[in-house]
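Standup, Tuesday
Yesterday: got the pipeline producing C-alpha cells again.
Today: sanity-check two examples.
Blockers: none.

Example 1:
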Amino acid sequence: MQDFNNIKIIGIDHGYGNIKTANTVTPTGVFVSDTEPTFDGNILFYNDKYYRFGEGHKSFISDKTEDEDFYAATLMSIARELSRENITEANVHIAAGLPLTWVSAQKENFRNYLLRNENVVFVYNKQTYVIHITSCSIHPQGYAAVVDRLREMSGVNMVADIGNGTINIMYITDRKPVESKCYTEKMGVNQCMINAQNAVMNSFGAKIDSSIIERFFRYGKADISERYRDCIVSEIKKYTECVLEILEKYEYNSDLMKLYITGGGANIMRNFADMDKSRVVFVDDICAAAKGYEIIAAQVFRRRAS
C-alpha cells in the first residue's frame, strides 16, 4: 500500500488461484451464504451476504466481471491491507491488472466493475470498514511484475507470467515493452493441477488433495509415497515441457535473450523444467504484480501532480 495526498493506493492482483495485494495472499475460492458461517476467518459481510474466502481456487472465466466474486474479493483485499495499519476508513485508489492481450478490450469494463460503488461499507472479520473508492487504474499483468527491474533489462528480454489460469508473454527491449509482441495462452498452473490429479486417479484410483500437489509446485516435494510422487512429478515435467513449447512458439531463444519467469509457475519451472537456467530470472515474489501495480499508479499520480 502506498500513500499519495491522503489516498491509499492499493494494488490488487486478481488471480484465479490467489488474489494478492502487496502484503497478502488469499486463495480465491469463495463460499457465499445468506447466514453467518460457523467458523471465523476471512469472512466478508457485504450486500446482505457472507463471503468466506480461502478454500480452494476460483474456476477460470475469461471475463472477471461475470459474477460478484472478484468484486467481493476486492473488498476483502482492501480490508486486509488496511488492517495491517489498523485503518478502518480510507480514500482508496485501486490499482489492478488484466492479462496482457486483454487489457485494451476489457479494461474499461473491469474498471467500471471495480468502481461500481464510490462509497462502500462492509464488515470483514467482524470489523466495519468505510471505503471511499476515488479512482481505479488497470495495468498489464507480467509487465507490472518486473517494472522494478527495468533498469537491468538491456537488450532483448522475454517475460513469462505463469498464473493459475493463463500464461502471459511479452518482450521488453532495452527497458521498453514491445506492445506488438504481447501474447496470452490459456495454459496456467491449474491445467497442471488437473493433469496431475487425473493421473493419480487413473493410475491408483485415488483422489489426491490439491494441497499436496501445490506443495510440489512450491517446494518440489511433498510427504507422500514414492509411487505417488513419481506419478505427480511426471505430470509436472510434462507441463513444463508444454510451457517451453509455448515460449519457443513465440521465438524464445536462450542464446539471444534473457527470460524472466513470474507468477505462481515460477517455482514449477525452477524445480522441474529441463532448460538452461543460467539466463533465467525467477521472480519468486507471488505479490510482485500487485506491488508493480502500486508502483505504476504512484508514478502516474506524481507526474500529474508535478
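Example 2:
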Amino acid sequence: MRVLFDIIRQSLATLWAHKLRSFLTMFGIAWGVGSLLLLVGLGEGFRSGQARQLATLGQDIMFVFPGRIPAVEGSLQSGQTYHFTYDDYIAIRDQARTLRAVSPVINREDIRAVSDYGSTSGQVFGVAPEYNEIRTIPIGSGRWFNDQDNNERRRVAVVGWELLKNVFPGRPAVGARLLLNGIRFDVIGVLAKVGQEGNNGTSARIFVPVETMRNLFRLKEKNTENAISFINYRPLNKADHLRSKEEVHQIIGRLHGFNPKLDDVFEDWDTVENSQKVGQIFDAMDYFLGVVGLVTLALGAIGIVNIMLVSVAERTREIGLRKALGATHRNILTQFFVEGAFLTLLSGGIGLAITAGFVALMAHLPAPEGFDTPRIVPISAVTAILSLALAGIGAGVYPARQAALLAPVEALRQE
C-alpha cells in the first residue's frame, strides 16, 4: 500500500511540474464531457418542451373533419361536399367501442359578447360536457358545465382567460351576466391560463353546452340545420388510436353512404401519430448530438494518449534509472497508468460539474415557448462516465506499457 501511495504522489508531482500541458489536456476532456451532456440535454429540453406544449391541447386528442365524397373514385373535382351532423355524433357516442370520450363541436366566430363592462368578439364553442375529458380545460374559478346544464339547454357559459381583459376587466366574472348576440348567459366558470402566458386558442373562446348552442346558434351556412363543425374524440388506448380512427370512419361512412376507406373523404388530425413522428425526429436528433459529443470526447482522449506518450519519451532516462535501482515492471506500469487515469477522471469530473452548474443556471432563465431548459440526461451521463473509463484505460495502459518494456540499459543511453 505504501508503494502505491508513493507512486500516486510521484504521479501528481509530475503532473504539477507540467501544469500548462496538464491543464490543456484536462481542458480537452472537460470540453468533451460538457459537449456530450449539453448537446443531449438541449435535445431533451426541446423534446420535453414540445411534449408540454402539446399537453396544453390535451392528451391523445383526435379530430375528424368533413371532406368531399368523390363521384368518381380518385377524382375530388367531381366530389360532393358533405357535413357532419349531430346524428353522426350520437351514432359514434353510442356505437363506438374503442373511444374514451367523444364530443361534437359547433364553432361560431360571428357572435358578439357584451357585458356591463365591455365587449369582444371571439370563438363560441358549443361542446358536450365530456369535452373537458378530451381537451385541456383547466378551470381557474367556478365550474365546467354538466349533463344537466346540457340536457336542460341552460344558458350558461365558461369564458376563456384571454377574454376577461375585454369583458370583465379587473372584475369577477363568475356569476356575472354576459350577452351573446343579445341573449343573456350566466358565466359559471373561467378558464385558467392555457399555455405559456395564456398564448393558446382555448384562452380566447367562450364555451356553452352543445344543446344550448344547437337551440340558439346553429350553423346556418350549412346545408342542414343539424350540422356540426367537427368531432373531437379520445381513444381508450393510445396504442389503438388507428383502430379508433377506423371505427369512427366506418360509422360516418355508413351514415353518409360512402366508402370510408376512400382517400380524402376525411380530414383527420391525429395528435398521437404526430407525437410519435416528432418523437422519432427527436430520437434521431439525440443520436446525432450524442455522436457529436462522443467524437469531441474521443478527441480529448486522444490528446491524453498523445501527452502520455510524450511524457514517456521525455522521461526515458528517469525510467531507466528507476529500473536500474530496482523498480519493477508493475511499478512503472502503475505510475503512468495512474497519471493517465487521474487526468481523465479529474477533467471529466470538472466537465460534469461545470455542465451541471450551467444547466442549473439556465433553469432560472425564461425559456422560449415550446422549449424547456436543458437537463442532465442520466443515460448521457452514464455514457460519458463509461467513455471516460475507456479513455482513461487507453490513455494510461498503452503509454505505461511502452515505458515498462524499456530495458534499463537502453533507457539510460537515451539523451
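Quick observation on example 2: The radius of gyration is 34 Å. The chain has a mean pLDDT of 78.
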